[in-house]
Amino acid sequence: MNAMKFVVGLAAAAALAAAQAQPKAIELEFPSWQIEEPGAGEYWTELIKAFEASHPNVKIRKQQVPFREYVDKLTVRFAGNNPPDIVHLPTRNYLAFASQGWLAPLDEYLAQTDVKATYTKLADEMLYNGKSYGVLMMGYGMMFYYNEKMLADAKVAVPKTSDELLKAIAAATDVNAGRFGYGAPTNEHPNVFVEIGTWVTGEGANLFKGNKYNFTDTAVIRAIDKFRAAVKSAPKGTSSEQARQLFIDGKIAMIRDGPWVAAQVKKAPDATRASLKMGMMPFATIPGGTSNSLHMPAKLDPEKKKLVWDFIRMTTMPEWQQKFTLLTSSPAPRRNALSQAEMTAHPELALVNKAANEAANLFPESVPVRENYNEFAKVFVEAGMKLMNTDRPTADIMKDLQAEMQKRIPL
Amino acid sequence: MRAASRPGTLARRERLFAYALLAPAVVAVAALIAYPMYLIFSMSFREGKSMNFLALGNRPLGLGNYASVLADDATWHSVWVSFAYTFGTIIPAFALGLGTALMLDRVFPLRRWLRSLVLLPWAVPGVMVSIVFLWLFDASFGVTNYFLRSLGLISTDIAWYTDESTALVAVIVPTIWKSYPFFTLTLLAAMQSIPGNLYEAAEVDGAPAWRRFTDITWPGIRGQATLAMVLNGLWTFREFDIIYAATGGGPSKATETLGIRAYNEAFGYFYMGRAAVIGVLMLVIALAAVLLARRQLRKEFF
Amino acid sequence: MRRWGWTVAVALLCALLLFPFYWMFVTAVLPTSQVLARSPTLLPSIADMSFEAFRGAFERKPLATWLANSLLVTLGATALSLLVSALAGYSLSRFRTRAQEITGLTLLLTKMLPGSLIVIPFFIMASTFHLIDNLFALMLANAAVGVPFATWLLKGFFDGIPRDLEHAAMIDGCSHLTAFAYVIMPLARTGLAACAIYLAILSWSDFVFAKTLINDQARWTITTGMVSFVGEHGIEWSALMAAGILSMVPMIVLFLILEPFLVSGMTAGSQR
């Protein structure tokens, strides 16, 4: 038995070694968290198909990686000198990668396109130390999604201010019946920062003042108290993706999220789809920011460089910008990507573009913070968990957080 | 003619043969255990944050990492969590193992199959155990909360894995489930090496069952029991899979043992040096435990 | 009659201890509405059961690939470790060399080493030699981790086999090596089997190394695959439990078959 095991083991090892041999066609690796996302997933599939059709000897290997660990995984890959060929990043994280010298500047390539002239102002975020390090895929304003039927059953009107929102949430919640008034990321997920940032920015406060941390500001604390009140009625231990799913399933009455949820709503089961609506955030200020962008790794085989650029450039073409916004219901960075006729045909896109145009950036703009955004987000999310799961006063938690943050990323 | 293998007198050929047989194992241990250990120690002296793992050797040497890790409250919190997790696991697991071993230390029909079944949790990968218990202890739809609600013990659902006050318990339970078979096995083996005539004599003397345990069974297994506690304690102290798959160290570090913290510092925050220091701290604690139990261990390992 | 009473008692204990398995099964075969409920169905009726979730699990994720990868790594690591450890264990058993004291020490050292720590230098080494995403490297890592314990276990076994046996064979003309291979090894069957289960379960369960050394989803093992299942869009518990059952079945079957060897192995090992 032992001898047989040994032989089988050797054979297996030999087979594996053989399997590691290089394939003939050129393969571009493209990990992303959007591969299985409704809307965005279809966009990428179509783009890849078109790209492979126009580049016969090239295959693009796409791979879904969960968002929660996406940035960590990518960082580990870059750190181990094993970056993917096509780099898709949440834009809030790209500066950290660029500051390590991991991304290739794209100015030369961009000069041959009309991107600089036709993209909205948000695309300027791609500049770091005077060079452009990526191409923006999407910038957005936060949208408000609600279940009309659930609100009607709870006898509340669609909220138009944050106080009305809190009342509506309380009214629509009935835990024993499995109904929640609000949904949000309530486990350790990077989007916890997005949620808190939304409330703070939406109430007109700011986590940063000048170039310093401003966590203990009274306005900030007031906003976060509202966030805590809202989240009390959200299901615990859920990720953003799970909260969205529960909304689609008719178990959550209201969520705030980016415009991409509209694509998911279109696919909702018939029972709930009619009641699911999208509107403007009931906040004084609409929060938003850049979402994600494409980049090229600094370490890349020369033969792949041109191909990766071709891929990125394809996304900037007007027809693909159009497809993007139609498939994902999110604003495209190219100005006027859609004709007036198409805008009229898709009223939700008008709403989405309005939010995007009015949005105030909820992400930190300070360069040292952006260079260490991952760490910033993690430490912030830890405090977020305390805010959501304990009864400690907000002021205390934020004071500790500011001290901790100042220690790790001094400003 | 060959020389006899008496201690200290080996013919040269024999000695070469001996070392040749040992060589592959030595290479494996040296390359894949000893060298990494050396890397850990040397990393602990490299200061500064570096996301560039491969260039760690270029960073300046110093004791800065030791200073910052040992002064950090979070480190000592992790030490506490590690101890709570370890003792919170091995004591109930030992009790369960002892109970099951006592029940299995008899002759009855189907014993072989029932013994296999009792030991079964040990064969399940740690992450799988964790995932199953994530479901059993799910806040809204888990069967545990359902039982507790039906029995009237709770009125609102307990968010086992996301509530700071219950998360540690929520990871201890699956660990107990996975590790009790180890105790069952070692204690059963120890019990079965106790001569049967001792029990017969006790029965003749009319001693009650609990006396039989305290006077015959326990003395007979005490050595093995202590050894098992130490070994399982070391294993639980190092355990990573179960906690990581369930909470990743959260919520708010409630379940962040030293092992989890070291991993998070390395692959979450990219402070390799600090992670290495935490590793060294773990080794020091483990060494202390081993030294405390050296009498028992001596019999086994030397 | 009293003995059967004991059987029933132990059987009830088993049922209690193995409840998690039962619940996995129930979740996997019942429809979501009955499972994801505030009052879940405790005893499924045959009519409601279906194996749809199992089929779905294979479709949603590359479960078959993950199982195959785990199988390859486990078989390879177990075989390699067993071979290396048998040689080393025999050497330590038969030859009094200075190496003996060090092995006890080494074994103890590995029982103190946290996996989550040792994986850091492993990652650095693998990155340097471009062995990331290489299942063979993962196999080596798992094999190395198992060597110390397996060596010690097998040494104990060889100690229990009288030296006269191979001396007799060598007097008959065998070389020491062939005597070892053809006379001693077959007699150590129990020990080898006990070692094999232990090593196999260790490799199959490995998570930290697989997670750190393998990025490519096509090369994931079952452990990294299962963890990725959790915390995605909405957790489909039925599919997850179905996949979980499938991932545990190989080891459970192996364990049930070889468990008697493990028990007698542990018993023999403790009688020194």
Rg of chain C (C-alpha, Å): 23 Å
Structural class of chain B: mainly alpha
CATH level 4 superfamily of chain B:
MetI-like
User: Might you state the CATH topology name of one domain in chain C?
Assistant: MetI-like fold
- As residue ranges, the low-confidence spans of chain C are none
Biggest β-sheet strands, sense, barrel of chain C: none
Key traits:
heterotrimer, A: 411 residues, alpha/beta, D-Maltodextrin-Binding Protein, domain 2, 2 domains, 4-stranded mixed β-sheet, 20 helices, C: mainly alpha, MetI-like fold, globular
How would the blueprint of this fold be written?
The complex is a heterotrimer of chains A (411), B (302) and C (272).
Chain A: H1 2-19, E1 26-32, H2 40-54, E2 58-64, H3 70-79, E3 87-90, H4 91-99, H5 107-111, H6 115-118, E4 127-128, E5 131-132, E6 135-141, E7 143-147, H7 148-153, H8 162-172, E8 180-183, H9 191-202, E9 208-209, E10 212-213, H10 218-231, H11 240-248, E11 252-257, H12 261-266, H13 270-273, E12 276-280, E13 287-295, H14 302-316, H15 318-328, H16 340-345, H17 347-358, E14 360-361, H18 367-371, H19 373-389, H20 394-408
Parallel strand pairs in A: 1-2, 8-11, 13-14
Antiparallel strand pairs in A: 3-13, 4-5, 6-13, 7-11, 7-12, 9-10
Chain B: H1 12-44, H2 64-71, H3 73-104, H4 111-119, H5 126-136, H6 143-150, H7 164-192, H8 196-205, H9 209-238, H10 241-246, H11 258-267, H12 272-292, H13 294-301
Helix pairs in contact in B: 1-12, 2-12, 3-7, 3-9, 5-7, 7-9, 9-12, 11-12
Chain C: H1 2-17, H2 19-29, H3 32-35, H4 52-60, H5 63-94, H6 99-112, H7 115-128, H8 135-159, H9 164-171, H10 176-187, H11 189-205, H12 208-213, H13 222-229, H14 237-270
Helix pairs in contact in C: 2-14, 4-14, 5-8, 5-11, 6-8, 8-11, 9-10, 11-14, 13-14
